[in-house]
Amino acid sequence: LEQLVTDGFSALGMSPTVGVLLLIFIATITVKSALVLLAKKQVGYTVARVATDLRLEMLRALLVSRWQYFLKQPLGGLANSMATESTRASKAYMHGIIMIADFIQVVIYAVIAFLVSWKVALVTLVAGLMIFFVLRRFVQKARRAGIRQTDVLKSLLSLLTDTLQSIKPLKAMARENVSDLLLEKKTKRLNKALQKQVLNKEFLKAFQEQMLMIILAIGLYVMLVYWQMPLPSILVLILLVSKLLKQLNKVQTRYQEMVILESAYWSLKDTIGKMELEREVLSGSKMPELKRAVRLKNVDFAYDDHRVLQNISLTFPAGHITSIVGPSGSGKTTIVDLVTGLLKPQQGEVWIDDQPLPQIDLKRWRRIVGYVPQENLLLHDTIMKNITLGDVNLSEKDAEDAMHAAGVWEFVQSMPQGMQSIVGERGGKLSGGQRQRIAIARAIVHKPKLLILDEATSALDPQSESAICETLLELRGQHTILT
Ligand code: ADP
Ligand code: MG
Predict the structure, then answer these.
(1) Which atom number of ligand 1 is nearest to the Cα of residue 304?
(2) pLDDT, tens digit, 9 for 90 and up, residues 227-282
(3) Pick from 430, 60, 32, 124: which is nearest to 279 by CA?
(4) pTM for the full model?
(5) Could you say which of 66, 138, 349, 455 would form a disulfide bridge with 204 (CB–CB 3.0 to 4.6 Å)?
(6) 309 CA to middle of ligand 1, Å?
(7) Which of 300, 330, 338, 339 to mutate to test the pocket of ligand 1 (most atoms within 8 A of CB)?
(8) Low-confidence ranges of the chain (pLDDT < 50)
(9) Ligand 1 centre distance from Cα of residue 322 (Å)
(10) What backbone phi and psi angles, to 5 degrees, belong to 57?
(11) How far is ligand 2, taken at its centre, from the CA of residue 330, in Å?
(12) Which atom of ligand 1 is nearest to the CA of 374?
């Protein structure tokens, strides 16, 4: 190797003086820094894209999944997948690729070591693999702690969102401490998992260093005392051996980092896979019109094992108001969800005029439906946005007309920023009745053919209720109304 270097210098017409060597050092380090910068930038960008791609993949799968799948999802779990799992998964990817880069360096060091002395190189590699083997339990333990972190984060966030969604009764009846305790317990479990990760990471590092020193000490002893090699050769060999071993250790350290985060990737992939299986089937292509009637024909429906509707046949004639009356839990909301196609009957069919719903383009059908749900949860946005739902085809005038009809215009006018006022989280800054009227305005702003009001006046005083009923009576004829 020495000869090779000397020959190389003379071929370039330079002599390997200290000055020249140092200059070459500085030049190579500069080039190296530039390359590392470039590579790191590329790695950073790629990692960000991995996270983005995972998020988009999940978002797409989520938005096209069936309604019944949504019903079973803890919202916090989904938020967790979107935020922490995708980030952790992309970091796992980063550690994975850096591990590969580190491994390539191991190969390069090993080749150089073999050129210098194949015996020493072989012994070093065997020693390095031995370190891998002896220390693998710290990797496994870290992996288990990572899995626990993934699980706890998911359940913690599910519990947190669930609690926050019903925080008012919890606070009003001073029961928040129950969820507090649960949340605290989970947070502490998370802390434990994090501690285990740190501990195993540090253990690995500490033992790697210690074993490296032991191996180097033994090597030094053998070379100095047994083989009585000259010191300069020993120094070169020791340098090489320690470089190679340290590089091998780096590979294991990266591997450990990767497996700590890996479970987040699998959890996210699992979620996405399940969502894709739950994809809503949009089979139909026919244009819905609603000129005559919406019909339920011999419909059976059950939520899993819970039978709600049995052999139900109903007709909602176009241009009329039809009311379904019944005690709570009798299946009124279920009927509405069947009409909008959110739920599919197990037996029988829903017909729009003379076409069964499965043959109709469901998206188009839903676009001509105006729907006021039983629980009026608004978006944390302006009143305008809450009414148009971001539809750019709807103007302020449309929104104003809808608000007049819903009897909420005067109230909105009295707000400091009018239609641009923010309604607060889930509409929390408005009264129940005001929220309900905004929801009604939202349902009629696009002049739907079928207007569905699911107990839409339950939060209104008798006067407002009768005012809205008047409006509905006026709307009848142009619209089909189902209440
Ligand atoms: P209503 O609107 O008439 O008060 P629903 O149609 O909401 O009644 O519910 C009818 C029945 O179906 C109730 O007994 C209720 O417990 C049950 N149910 C409603 N939603 C679900 C669901 N997602 N999973 C299981 N059972 C449900
Ligand atoms: Mg209901």
Answers:
(1) 25
(2) 888 888 888 888 888 999 999 999 999 999 999 999 999 999 999 999 999 998 88
(3) 60
(4) 0.82
(5) 138
(6) 10
(7) 330
(8) none
(9) 21
(10) -60, -45
(11) 8
(12) 2
